[in-house]
Please model this.
Amino acid sequence: MADILKRNKALSVNPLKASQPIGGSLATLGFNRAMPMLHGSQGCTAFAKVFFVRHFREPIPLQSTAMDQGSSVMGADENVREGIKTIAEKSRPALITILTTGLAETQGADVHRNVREFREANPEFADVAVVAVNTPDFTGSVETGFALTLTEIIRALVPDAKEAGTYPGKRTTAWMQDDCMDAGGRATQGAVAEVEQRREQLPERQVNVLVNYMLTPGDLEALRDIFEQFQLRPVFVPDISDSLDGCLTDEDFSPVTIGGTLISEMATLGDALATVVIGPSLTKAAELLEQKTGVPTYALDHLYGLKANDALMSALAKISGHDVPERIERQRSQLQDAMLDTHFMLGQLRIAIAADADLLNAFVEQVQEMGAEVVAAVTSCNVPLLARIPVASIKIGDLEDMELIGKARKAQLVIGNSHAVDTAERLGAPILRAGFPLYDIIGGYQKTWIGYRGSRQTLFDLANLVINFSHEEIPVYRSIYGQKPAGELTDYPLSCH
Model:
């Protein structure tokens, strides 16, 4: 059991965490035709948008209630109601999430009441799902904000078990058109047919997949391929691989997300064979979904490394009733070979890791499989998972804490997001960029970390960093009997006496 070291300073010198509203926005962006709205000042939303644009390098739909000095003191209920109405009128989204910021929480906003008042005053927008979530940025992190938002979306949009089981009889083409409209309220070309095709494909073999914040679009694409090899139809909740994957579209501009989990799919979660949950941060969301649908849950901490992926394959084999496909068996053998090839570089390597709890746990277990030692583990906030991460101690703090601990314990490699690059330089160690945000490299958001193939590539990346940046190489030997330049008299002895 890890020893949890609490914060012992009043401020963050070099902040590690991203805020809860950013996590809530990321969860929202994984749904089709969605719009997150931050209840706070315009600066709060602008700051979050900068994070997303620099990380994904895509236009990000994000709105603000634009609280000012007056509404901060007198109340901003009208800002919320008018904000929802304006978005519903102009953008025709399928989902709007209202995410509070530190300013709104300090002011005492009740966004849940605001949503009820909006519903009463505007029945014409009954087809627009509106979900309010309390995500103050003075507590928690991107991980907890993501989990809180996903929990509230499930609470609002997934029917109870007695109402579930409506697939496919109540799914009419007219009903599905509402889920496939563009910003102008028109059914996009081919969208209805695509939805019908997706729902007709292996309908009796649907599996719900709750995915946490650390899975990239590349991860979800790889995970979909794994499920389909077991002849299962995964429904990712949410699915940023379809909305934030960097794909060009035919539309010149869209004020809402293009792609992602269809809101209508939420009504089918009770028809699934099972629910696979990836990440301990989603425990409450998984418990709520199982309570509402009665669908059994398979919980996995992460999908990094050999042991974790073996657990995934065992679960999918049990759910599907099929043996593990030969292609996946071969990928497992390739990962084992990579472990043999890289253990010379990674065995006993001293590593410092700074990440939110789910990602921290994933990397700790993967590098420990290779015999590496985690000498510094720093995370953003205290969550139950920390107590069972297999390290001696975990510091709840910032990147300065990681730097001080890493320096004292002679860390040889750093794992962290782009904010940790300067820290790694001061430590004189290479860095494996991972997490959120990644703004100083191209395509970091699309990298595949999970599965046997992703885990194999991670080992290669770590080993290459060690090879290219190692400071402990054996120095080049130069013989004292080396050849002298032409014409220079030699001072070699004539005898060995």
Q: What stands out?
A: Residues 4 and 376 are 12 Å apart (CA to CA). Residues 165-178, 183-187, 492-497 have pLDDT under 50 and may be disordered.
